[in-house]
Every structure is written in structure tokens, then in C-alpha cells.
Design goal:
Distance between the termini: 69 Å
Largest sheet: 8 strands, parallel
Structural class: alpha/beta
Shape: globular
Radius of gyration: 35 Å
Helix content: 40-55%
Number of helices: 44
Number of strands: 33
């Protein structure tokens, strides 16, 4: 709506009035933003036709459902109604329905042409609702937040594994897309622009850049801005890798009303990260978390009262200015949070030192008087480094990255990048190299200095950097107008700026001229452009001295003097310079140059120089400079000796060439002492020299009188470093295992000498008084429990504990309780660790706990494995054992838990905390059982899946009975391998959007290690195939079948007279949401009922590529090669799953043939896009392992393939898969979930088993306590 002569969005001063009201109100009370638009839209259950409406019914896109923004045009009253509900609940502001309102996001729906309209209409709907509620209570105006989402593309992450520098879009394209969105939002009446759900800060910077253009160049009245990032997991970082503090530094240049967090996490998980934001945020805070974390089905279970209580600590700790809700939240959630917050005062923003400059890469870096001199790495400069220039000119960007990485490792705190070279396309080279840097978190963590004399190259660099950069440089050389124009652009990117001491008259060389230019520049930047003093970095020109020309001799003095003036008279300003310029006349005289730089910096830093472009590894410590050379350099810097140039030359000649090595030799670490060499080998996983180095240490009897001292000393010192790096996320599991291999090789070398010493002691004293466990931090007995053959996870835990100096006694798999406890007593174990993968293992763990209690054993009991959980441990195991019973999530947590349990000072507090937590979990569990409603079995059967069996005749398999395949060609399986579980085995998990294979290789944190691991897996995979290390066997069968109630009967032949087996089914009973129309599934639903007379069929199979694993692992064990053992078992698992996938494909196309025309790729098969399913007994669709007995008996599996069952019905070999084939198009996987006593009793009766036995096998599925 227009106001006077001005159209909506362009009314002068309106934005300032809104911002004034917000800033004043936010100091008085907590304000509220709305909750999830998508959650409320889902409640309407709009169909495809509803999304299309009349206007888009013939739109060419095959589906529009899911394009929620479109509903502003096709279902406007529904969107308006949602806004009203949130305003009624207490929201001060509501977001427009425009999360995907850009041409980039709408391209998925072929709707780029209506983006402006989508945004304008959406803003108008929200405005209408806000005006209605403002009229109802004018004392509390309501505001429209124009929602600006992140788009579905990212500027900081490459979508290509092969090309880290590739980007799916550009900064300029995003700016244009956001610019158009802003036009629509502002024309529709948006009061505030909210850039939200920021997973990539560079995308957000493009949005903020566009917003500034809209206000500065497009005639719109400037409106308040709010910014909300998204921390994707417990790392505390955005998807693109930035910390919260780094994120704030990157975006706060826009002077937003609020900065905060939303989405990805529930309030409980978000709290520590909001505390970081609050601590470092100079403006107001905004926070709108999800309604907890999603459940297995992607739904949010947290009710309004629960969410309000989780948000309460935010308010109580004084973290909130604006609060609302994201995914899963509703008006009821907002009302609950609103009501809860009434008793709390709003957050008061902290005050910050105005002279502190905060720049950032992935991490923030503060530059102030306490920082000390800041090293700016100089070697990524094609003008200053011949090696770097050669790499870039030859297109060897990955090699060029190594130069950047070396600088960071050598202490560079900022990296200067310059591509000014006549033969280079500077813009393209800058873009490509900075995109490469973005893929390397070790480098990208530090801020960038984008350096070029060509401003277009500077712009290219700024468009690639998500952090707050430093631009090097601008100056008054081309006049004030050009200076201001460039400075405004730099500020729009949020960068700090280096200003050279140049003006229209040229370069300043004297102190007075330098300061004159710096002062003029400072006033222009602070008063006309809006820079803060701390964001201005002056380079007052470090010029070359000792050239032989007298007029050059005072240049160092002039620089040092102007540093003092700048610090005295230009508040906050920083000082930098290119240090290598100082000694340019002594190129090739490297010792001279190093010492000149060190002396110059010693004095310049004292005068106020904050930073300098310098090779961080190219400085001599001031106190280490030879006294005679020091005196000459001091005279040169202070211009005290007219003969100093000759003296410097004479010194260089008398002391040789003085050049230092440009490239560190590959094995320079071998020059260190034996302790340093052992530590390096352990951290890097290098086995080449470890035996000879260990022997060298052993022979040094003065330092290491006993072989054990070598373990306790240098070896454990090195492993401590490994443990620290692993615990802090700086090393990854494959690296740790390689380190363990080095450690084991060293220890294996020492064992004979230790045994010799022990025997000598026995001979001398007749008694061995040594404690056999004295060399270790503690002893841990580990075992995979009886009935279970899975051990990869346990092995990894053992390796990690071993790396941390714990004696690990691994009893292997299928280990009975008796053996575990006897070994623990015999070995005087400090801890027992139990592992298991299959569900029956949980019961065995309960039994072990009970036995420990009965025997009076009180040492801590650790529980781990894929099916275990903290909840199960708290509810089922801990109450049966009066000692400490603790769930350990994975290997990375094991050391922390074990060390806490064995620390006498920490034990009581640690165990008490665990006990309190488990008590809460038990209360939560039993309360949940009371609250959750379960249908009776008959009610669930009434709501079963009802298929019209008259619609089609089921296909008949090509054969009935069984067929065995005893030597599958392994090479044919490789293309069907699902690599995702492989990386999960090694605990390498990418973050969205790099979670799956092969996208994990792009992940900033684990990508490099995942690629190394994958490459090593390929080597072993080729060896497996070439040398026939493993054998693949399979069996498949088909039978006539019909369902009878919840069971499936199998018949001997087509007469269907003789029943030869029955598969028993379990049906879902847990009540589903009232709006959920899904049936209550049972596997029998997918087979034609007997009474229909329809001839149906089922199949079954078992496969394994585990034959040969044990034999090869025994070879690896002899050489202490745990890494290869784990790798082989992981690959056997993957090949087995691939064989199951290949067999299922053959079943669909040939053996059964119900999908003979299928043309799916292996990737599509792994996404389960085919018809039919192959659920396995013991898994969610039929959690009863005893159903395997029916399969094995019916198909004679063990005799035909060698695949057996343990007494707990785990399959052997461990790498084995079995299941039942269902062919109907409506068949699907599901989880039975919790079931009630009436179904257990009915199931027991049908199976002719006791209720107690059924309860034991299905203990994890009971919704009641069987005891």
C-alpha cells in the first residue's frame, strides 16, 4: 500500500522508525517470532491439485506439491490463516512464506518467472495479518519479516568430488536472485528482512550484499535486518565449517538488529551454541530452535510444554532477545514459549573493545594490543614466490595448496593471496585457488588477505570467501571518488581494508607525508563510508634500505616513526607492511635478509606495527642473531652508519652464500633425537623405521634402564599426542589405527627383551614380584557376547584403548559369560566391556550383569554395539547390577569413559552423574509407556493394509524349490557395493550435504581421510578378487504361499494342499498420529489371503561372502595388522550386502520375473526404487530371530552353503545376509515397534512357544516390563 506519494517499501524513514521501535522494545522485553510455516502447511494435507490450483493446473512440471511458497498464490487464505494463528499465540513478528523464494530455488519447479510475484503476494498476506492484529492492539505493533532462505546451492562447497574448485552457482547469480526476492518482499510490505537458516555464510553474504544494493541503488527505504545461522551438529559449526564466532565476524558489518541461530537442533542441543553466539554478539540475539530432534520418521515429537521447558534455560541465563520456533513448532509451541518467558528479562548485549579487529576464516581471529605481531603468510603470491607462481601457471593448484598449508603450519595467522602475473587470468586464478582453499579446513580456518593491484581481481577473491577478509589494498592514487567507490564495495563484503600511503601525488616516503595520507584516508573511511577505525589497516610503505643510495637509508626510520603517529592519532587503526621489501637489495643473501627482518620487526612492533606480510618460517630469533651481525643490522635500520651497506655485503661474503633450503627434505624428521622420531612415526603412522628407532632407545640404558621404560616413555608420549589429536577431532580413526600398528610393531620388538628380563628376575629371586599390568593404565577385558559373531566395532574400541596405554584382553566373538568373568578375575581386570550387534545379544548382556551381581564382582561394566543404547542400558542392564554399568556410544568416547572410571579422584563423581542420568532415563521410559496408547491386536488388524487382490494376478516364479550358487564372481558385485555403511564402520561421517558416498569426499572435516580410506579399500578389494581370498555363496527358493491372518503359509506345490512351513508375522500396535492415515502393517499383508483363492508366492534367500575371512585375518594378526583385519571384515560385509542386492535383482528380473523390464542403476537400487522387499528376521519388519530357524530348515541352508546359525541365531560367517522376498507393488519396509502383551500371547500360541520365551526374544519390542 502506498503512503502519500511513495510506494510501499520506499517510504522515507519508515525503516528507521521500525528499527527504533525494535531496539527500544528489545531492551525492555523478550520479543517473539512465529513458528514453522511448513509444519502448519502439512496439517492442511494439500494435494497436488491443491498446490496447482486453477492457475497452474497445466504447468509442465510433473509435481508442484512440496513447493510451499506457491501456496501463497494458490491457497492464500490458508497462509493468511497460519499467520493469524501465530499472531494470536503471541508473536510480535511473522515470517513470509518465501523460504524458497528465489529464482535459484524455484528453478526446481520451473517457476523462476513468478518469483517476484510469490514474494510480493506472500508479504502482502503477512502484512494483512499483522495489520489486523495491530489494529486490535495498537500498543503492540506486529511486523512482517521477509524470509530469505539459503537456496539449494552452496558457494563454499563443491558438488563435485573430482573438482574441489567447482561451484554449482556464482556469487553474482545469487546476488541477482536475492535482489529480485527483496524487491518483491519490500513491495509487498515487509518491515524486516530476515536472512535465515544459514548453512553457508558465503550464501548469506551474497544475500546481505544484495540487500545493501537494494537500499543503496534501487531506491528502497532501508529496513532492519536480522540474521540467523544454522549449527548443523554438535561440532558447533555451520555446514560450511564456520564456528559461531567466525560466523558473527562475517556478517555483523551489516549492523543487523539481531544475530542468532535457528533450525537443525532442538533447544536442548542448541543451548551451548547460543551461549557462544550471545557472548560474541554485539547486537540483539534471535533464536528459534526446532521442536526437539526428529524421530525415525522425520517427525517432531516434542510437545509445546516440553519445548517451553527446554527454552527456559535460554531465558533464565539471559540469552534471549527474540525467540520463536522452527521445524515441528506450531502456534501452541509459540504460546507456551511466550507464556514461559514472561517472567524473564531480555538479554543485555556485552560491550566490546572498539579497537579490536575480528577477522575470520572458518574461525574468528582477534587482532588487538594483546594479540602480538600477526604473521601474514607471503608465499601464496605469484610475484613473490617463484615456486608458487610455477605451480599456478602450470595449473597445479593442489600442489600450490601445500604451500598455503605449510605457511599455516609454520605460524601464519592470515594468508595473503596474490595472482598478479602477466601470463595469468588473475580473476580466474584467484577464484580457483580460493575455492580450493575452501575445501581444506586446515588452511581455510585462518582469515584471507585478498591481494591485488587490480580491483577486479580483489572482487573475484571476495566472492569466494565466507569469512571476514582483509583487502590489500586501496589508496587515494586515483582520487577520492574512486577511493570511496572501492571502499563502499569492500564494506559491502564486510572486509577490513589495507590502505596504502599513496595519493594523487604519488607514494609517500617521509613520515609527515605518510601520516598526511593516512589521516585523510581514515577520515574519509570512517566519516563517509562507515568503516570502524579497527577495520582500517594502514600500509605506510616499507621501502628498501641499504641500496647504496643515500636517500633510501632513512626509510626504516620513517616507517617506525609514522607507526607511532598513527597509533597516537587514529583510534583503532592497524598497521601492516610487506617486510621483505626492506631487504630487497640483498636478494640471495638469505642470512642477512632474515636478520634484517627480525631487527626491523623488533622495533616496528614496539612502535605499533600490528601485522606484516612475512614468511613465518623465515625469521631469526632476535636474541639468536650473532652480535656482530646484530650491530650492523641495527645500524642499517636506524641509519646510523653511512658505510652499513658495504659492511652488510662484506659480512655476507665472509660467511658464505648464506642461503637456506627452500624445500624441506622429505625425511628431515629423521634428524631429530630418537624420542622426536618415535613421536613423529606414531602420529604419522610410519612403520618404516620404528623397529630400529625403538632398538636405539632400548640400547640407551642410561635413559631407559628397562625395555618397559621405552614403552612408558617415548612410545606412550607419542601415543598421548595421538590420543589428544583423536579426542579433539584432529585425527581420524584410520589414522589412529595406523598409529596403533606402529605402536604394536614397537611393542612386539620389545616383548622378547621384557620376557628375558622377567625370566632373569625369576632366576635371581625365585619370585616374580612385578605386577604384570604395571606397564599399563589399566586392564580391560572385552568380548562379543555369546551367540553373536560381530566384532568390528569392538576391535576398533580395543585399538583406541590400546593406543592410550590400556591393556586390552580381547576374548573374540561368541564368548560365554563364564569365560568373560573367569578371565576378568584371572587377569585382575579393571573393566569388562561387552559388545553385540544382534538383538538377542541385549539379553545376554543382561545375563552377564546379573551374573556379575550374583558373584559379587563390582568392576565397571561397559556396554556397546549397534543395537545397544543408553536407554536400554539404563532400563534393562543397570538395575540388575550394583556396580557401574555404562553405555559407550563409540570408540571416540571409550577413552574418556575408561579414564574417568580408573581415576580414583574422578570415579565417584563420574559414576554418580551417570547414575543420576540413568535414573532420569528410566523415569522417562516408564512415563512414556504410560502415555503411549496401543491398539489392541484386533483393532490393529482391523486397520491393516487392505489390498484389492482382484486387480492383478501375482507372477509365478521361474522355478519352485531352492537353487544354490556356490561361487559367485566377486568382480560382478563391486558395482553394487553400498559404501555408506563402510565409512560408518570407520566412524567417518560427512555433514549435510556431504553425508553420503561419494559426497563424503567433499566434507571439510572428514573428506580427505575418507578418500584415503576409500583408496586403500580399493587396493585390498582388488587383492581379494585377484587372489580369490573370499568366496561368495548364495541360496534362493520360492514356494506357493498365502496369508492366514498375520502369518504366511508355504505349500509343497501348486495344489496348496500340503503346508510345509509357516512364517509368523508381527503387527504394529503403537497408535499413530490422528492425522496419519497409514495402516498398521504386518508382513502378511503383502501376500494374498488364502480365502481369496489367489495363487501367490514368497521367496527366501541367504548369502555370504565371509568364507575366507578368518583365515586371512589370522595372517594379518601375526604381523599385528589390526588395520587390515578391520578393513577385510568391513569389505566382506559390503560384498555380502552387494551379493544380496545382485541376487534380489536377479530375482526381480529372472528367477521370479515380476519386474523383468527393470532398468535401474546400482545407485537407484541402493535407494530401494525397485518393486518388492527382502526383510530379514531380527530386523524391524519382523524382529523375531527365531524365524531364521524356519528358513534354515526349509531350505537346508547350512548343508547347501555352509552358512550356519549360532545358538543365539546369529549367522556364521559374520558377513552374511538372509531374508524373505515379497513381490507385491505395495509391499514396503516398516518397523513393528513396540507391541503389547495381547499380541505376545497370541504370537506365542500360534508359534507354540511359551510366552516367556517370546518375551525374551522380543524384549526390545515390549511396551511393558516383562519382569
Amino acid at each position: 500500500m502506498a503512503t502519500g506519494a511513495y510506494p510501499t517499501g520506499k517510504v522515507p524513514g519508515e525503516g528507521a522508525r521500525i528499527e527504533k521501535y525494535l531496539r527500544e522494545t528489545l531492551k525492555k522485553r523478550i520479543m517473539f517470532i512465529d513458528g514453522a510455516m511448513g509444519t502448519m502447511i502439512q496439517r492442511h494435507k494439500f494435494t497436488e491439485e491443491d498446490f496447482r490450483g486453477e492457475r497452474f493446473k497445466d504447468h509442465p512440471k510433473d509435481f508442484l506439491k512440496g513447493n510451499n511458497d506457491l501456496l501463497s498464490l494458490t491457497q492464500p487464505e490458508a497462509i493468511y490463516g497460519i499467520h493469524c494463528q501465530y499472531l494470536e499465540a503471541g508473536s510480535d513478528m511473522v515470517e513470509t512464506n518465501t523460504f524458497s523464494g528465489t529464482t535459484i530455488a524455484q528453478a526446481d519447479y520451473l517457476m523462476e518467472d513468478i518469483v517476484y510475484e510469490l514474494n510480493k503476494v506472500s508479504a502482502e498476506l503477512a502484512k494483512r495479518a499483522c495489520q489486523k492484529y495491530t489494529r486490535m492492539d495498537p500498543s503492540r505493533p506486529r511486523f512482517v519479516c521477509g524470509a530469505i532462505g539459503p537456496t539449494n546451492q552452496t558457494l563454499s562447497i563443491s558438488p563435485s568430488v573430482e573438482n574441489p574448485s567447482y561451484r554449482a552457482t556464482t556469487f553474482d547469480k545469487l546476488v541477482e536472485a536475492y535482489r529480485e526476492q527483496c524487491h518483491g518482499l519490500l513491495d509487498g510490505g515487509a518491515d524486516i528482512l530476515l536472512v535465515e537458516t544459514i548453512f553457508d555464510t558465503l550464501n548469506a553474504k551474497a544475500a546481505l550484499y544484495a540487500i545493501d544494493l537494494v537500499f543503496e541503488e534501487d531506491g528502497y527505504d532501508r529496513r532492519p535486518i536480522m540474521i540467523s545461522g544454522t549449527i548443523v551438529d554438535q561440532s558447533g559449526r555451520t555446514l560450511s565449517g564456520q564456528t559461531g564466532e567466525g560466523f558473527i565476524a562475517s556478517v555483523e558489518h551489516t549492523n543487523p538488529v539481531a544475530i542468532g541461530l535457528n533450525c537443525a537442533l532442538g533447544a536442548d542441543q542448541m543451548l551451548p551454541f547460543l551461549q557462544v553466539i550471545s557472548k560474541n554478539n554485539p547486537t540483539f540475539s534471535i533464536c528459534y530452535p526446532n521442536a526437539g530432534l526428529p524421530n525415525t520418521f522425520g517427525e517432531y515429537d516434542q510437545d509445546p510444554e516440553q519445548m517451553a521447558e527446554q527454552v527456559r534455560p535460554f531465558a533464565a541465563l539471559g540469552l534471549l532477545n527474540i525467540v520463536g520456533g522452527c521445524c515441528g513448532t506450531t502456534p501452541a509451541h509459540i504460546k507456551a514459549v511466550h507464556d514461559m518467558c514472561q517472567e524473564y528479562k531480555p538479554r543485555v548485549a556485552p560491550t566490546f573493545d572498539p579497537d579490536t579487529l575480528v577477522v575470520s576464516g572458518l574461525e574468528a581471529f582477534k587482532i588487538n594490543k594483546d594479540t602480538g605481531f600477526v604473521n601474514i603468510g607471503e608465499r601464496c603470491n605469484v610475484s613473490g614466490s617463484r615456486i608458487f607462481a610455477k605451480k599456478v601457471l602450470n595449473g597445479q593448484y593442489e600442489d600450490a595448496l601445500a604451500i598455503a598449508r605449510a605457511q599455516v603450519e609454520n605460524g601464519a595467522q592470515v594468508i595473503d593471496v596474490n595472482m598478479d602475473e602477466g601470463l595469468l587470468d588473475g580473476k580466474a586464478a584467484m577464484t580457483k585457488f580460493l575455492n580450493y582453499i575452501a575445501s581444506e579446513p586446515d588452511i581455510a580456518r585462518v582469515p584471507l588477505m585478498v591481494d591485488s593491484s587490480n580491483f577486479e581481481v580483489v572482487l573475484a577473491g571476495l566472492k569466494c570467501a565466507q569469512g571476514k577478509c582483509i583487502v590489500n589494498s586501496i589508496s587515494l592514487k586515483e582520487g577520492e571518488a574512486d577511493f570511496v567507490k572501492k571502499a563502499k564495495i569492500v564494506k559491502r563484503f564486510g572486509a577490513a581494508v589495507v590502505v596504502m600511503a599513496f595519493d594523487e601525488e604519488g607514494q609517500a616516503v617521509t613520515t609527515d607525508r605518510k601520516f598526511e595520507i593516512c589521516e585523510r584516508s581514515y577520515n574519509i573511511l570512517t566519516q563517509k563510508v562507515g568503516f570502524r577505525g579497527c577495520e582500517i589497516i594502514f600500509d605506510p610503505n616499507i621501502l628498501t634500505i641499504a641500496t647504496g643510495l643515500e636517500e633510501h637509508n632513512n626509510y626504516a626510520v620513517e616507517f617506525i616513526d609514522v607507526c607511532r603517529l598513527i597509533k597516537q592519532k587514529l583510534p583503532g587503526a592497524k598497521i601492516s607492511g610487506g617486510v621483505s621489501n626492506l631487504s630487497f637489495s640483498f636478494r640471495g643473501k638469505e642470512i642477512i635478509r632474515q636478520c634484517m627482518h627480525s631487527v626491523f620487526l623488533y622495533h616496528a612492533v614496539q612502535a605499533g606495527m600490528d601485522m606484516g606480510i612475512v614468511n613465518a618460517g623465515f625469521l631469526t630469533i632476535y636474541d639468536d642473531i650473532p652480535k656482530d651481525l646484530l650491530q650492523i643490522c641495527e645500524d642499517a635500520i636506524w641509519n646510523r652508519d653511512p658505510e652499513v651497506t658495504e659492511k652488510l655485503l662484506q659480512y655476507a661474503e665472509s660467511h658464505g652464500k648464506g642461503s637456506t633450503a627452500a624445500v624441506e627434505q622429505e625425511e628431515a624428521w629423521r634428524k631429530g633425537d630418537v624420542e622426536a622420531r618415535l613421536s613423529h612415526a606414531l602420529v604419522k603412522g610410519i612403520t618404516k623405521y620404528v623397529v630400529e628407532d625403538t632398538e636405539e632407545a632400548r640400547l640407551n640404558k642410561e635413559r631407559y634402564p628397562r625395555p618397559l621404560n621405552v614403552i612408558e616413555g617415548p612410545l606412550m608420549a607419542g601415543m598421548s599426542v595421538v590420543g589428544e589429536l583423536f579426542g579433539s577431532g584432529k585425527m581420524f580413526l584410520p589414522q589412529v589405527i595406523k598409529s596403533a600398528r606402529v605402536m604394536k610393531s614397537a611393542v612386539a620388538h620389545l616383548i622378547p627383551f621384557m620376557e628375558e628380563e622377567r625370566l632373569r628376575n625369576l632366576a635371581e629371586s625365585g619370585i616374580d614380584t612385578d605386577d604384570p599390568n604395571a606397564a599399563y593404565n589399566g586392564t580391560v577385558v572385552m568380548a562379543t557376547v555369546k551367540g553373536d559373531v560381530h566384532d568390528i566395532g569392538k576391535n576398533i574400541v580395543g585399538v583406541v584403548l590400546g593406543c592410550n596405554n590400556y591393556k586390552v584382553i580381547d576374548l573374540g566373538v561368541m564368548c560365554p559369560c563364564e569365560k568373560i568373568l573367569e578371565t576378568a578375575i584371572k587377569e585382575r581386570a579393571d573393566i569388562i566391556g561387552l559388545s553385540g550387534l544382534i538383538t538377542p545379544s541385549l539379553d545376554e548382556m543382561v545375563y552377564v550383569a546379573k551374573e556379575m551381581e550374583r558373584r559379587g564382582i563390582k568392576i565397571p561394566l561397559l556396554i556397546g554395539g549397534a543395537t545397544t543404547s543408553k536407554m536400554h542400558t539404563a532400563v534393562k542392564i543397570a538395575p540388575r547390577y550394583s556396580g557401574a554399568a555404562i553405555h559407550v556410544l563409540d570408540a571416540s568416547k571409550s577413552v574418556v569413559v575408561v579414564s574417568s572410571l580408573l581415576d580414583k579422584n574422578a570415579y565417584d563423581d563420574f559414576v554418580d552423574d551417570i547414575a543420576d542420568e540413568y535414573e532420569d532415563l528410566r523415569a522417562e521410559h516408564y512415563e512414556g509407556l504410560k502415555d503411549r496408547r496401543y491398539l489392541t491386536l484386533e483393532e490393529a488388524r482391523d486397520k491393516r493394509l487392505k489390498i484389492d487382490w482382484a486387480e492383478g494376478v501375482p507372477d509365478k516364479p521361474a522355478f519352485l524349490g531352492t537353487r544354490a550358487f556356490n561361487d559367485y564372481e566377486l568382480s560382478s558385485l563391486v558395482s553394487h557395493i553400498d559404501w555408506n555403511p563402510f565409512f560408518q564402520t570407520w566412524q567417518l561421517r560427512g555433514k549435510y550435504p556431504n553425508r553420503g558416498f561419494p559426497k563424503i569426499f567433499n566434507d571439510e572435516t572428514v573428506g580427505e581421510e575418507a578418500r584415503k580410506l576409500y583408496d586403500e579399500a580399493q587396493v585390498m578389494l582388488k587383492e581379494i578378487i585377484k587372489d580369490n581370498i573370499l568366496k561368495a555363496r548364495a541360496i534362493v527358493g520360492f514356494w506357493p504361499a498365502n496369508s492366514v491372518g498375520d502369518d504366511v503359509e508355504l505349500y509343497a506345490d501348486e495344489t496348496r494342499q500340503e503346508k510345509i512351513a509357516t512364517y509368523y508375522g508381527l503387527r504394529q500396535q503403537a497408535e499413530k498420529d490422528s492425522e496419519n492415515t497409514e495402516p498398521y502393517y504386518c508382513l502378511s499383508d503383502f501376500v494374498a489371503p488364502k480365502e481369496t483363492g489367489v495363487a501367490d508366492y514368497v521367496g527366501a534367500f541367504a548369502v555370504s561372502v565371509g568364507f575366507g575371512v578368518d583365515e586371512k585375518c589370522a595372517e594379518y594378526a601375526k604381523s599385528h595388522d589390526d588395520y587390515s583385519i578391520i578393513m577385510l571384515k568391513a569389505l566382506a560385509d559390503r560384498l555380502t550386502e552387494a551379493l544380496a542386492e545382485v541376487l534380489h535383482e536377479d530375482v526381480r528380473k529372472m528367477h521370479w520375473g515380476y519386474a523383468a523390464g527393470e532398468t535401474l542403476t546400482p545407485e537407484e537400487m541402493l535407494q530401494v526404487k525397485y518393486q518388492g522387499i527382502r526383510p530379514a528376521p531380527g530386523y524391524p519388519s519382523q524382529p523375531d530371530h527365531t524365524e531364521k530357524q524356519t528358513m534354515w530348515k526349509l531350505m537346508n541352508i547350512e548343508e547347501q552353503t555352509g552358512i550356519g546359525l549360532t545358538e543365539s541365531l546369529a549367522m556364521t560367517p559374520a558377513a552374511a545376509v538372509s531374508g524373505i522376498f515379497f513381490a507385491h507393488p505395495k509391499s514396503q519396509y516398516f518397523a513393528v515397534g513396540k507391541i503389547n502383551r495381547d499380541q505376545i500371547e497370541d504370537y506365542a500360541r500360534r508359534k507354540n512357544m511359551s510366552v516367556a520365551d517370546v518375551e525374551r526374544w522380543l524384549s526390545s519390542n515390549l511396551c511393558y516390563d516383562a519382569e
